Amino acid sequence: MLAYLDSSVLLKRILHEPGGLDGISEFGPFISSTLIEIECFR
Fold this sequence. Notes:
Strand content: 5-15%
Radius of gyration: 10 Å
Strand order of the largest sheet: 1-2
Largest sheet: 2 strands, parallel
Number of domains: 1
Structural class: alpha+beta
Distance between the termini: 29 Å
Helix content: 25-40%
Shape: flat
Number of strands: 2
């Protein structure tokens, strides 16, 4: 099953904030927008 990775979820995971999908390793492979890098840097 493919899982879409949104920039807000990615940032929550990186910054160790609540709602960052603690069980994220159960999902995958991931797909995302080609703009995810730009969205995260903004």
